[in-house]
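Moderator note: this is an archived Q&A kept for reference. The question asked for a predicted structure of one protein chain; the sequence and the answer are reproduced below.
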Amino acid sequence: MTTFERLTITIAIIIVVIFAAVSGGIFIGQELQKQKSLAAANAAFEKSHEVENEVEALTPYQRCLAVGGMPDECKILLRGLDKTTQGK
């Protein structure tokens, strides 16, 4: 075996090792990203239930104020809703 052949084989082995390392790194990175994404989605889902419970605990007047309504506007709006529900 000549020196050139040894050098060629050594370079080929180095290239294969580098390719394997890069491929493994990409695979591990994708898995870590999937785990982070799943954890974030789970946290958002749990937070949505907390927010939903907080909103359900509010009175209609408090909900109107929470979305940016002015106190007088909310009173008028809710008074109008009461009249329409009474007339069913």
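Archived answer notes: Residues 44 and 60 are 25 Å apart (CA to CA).
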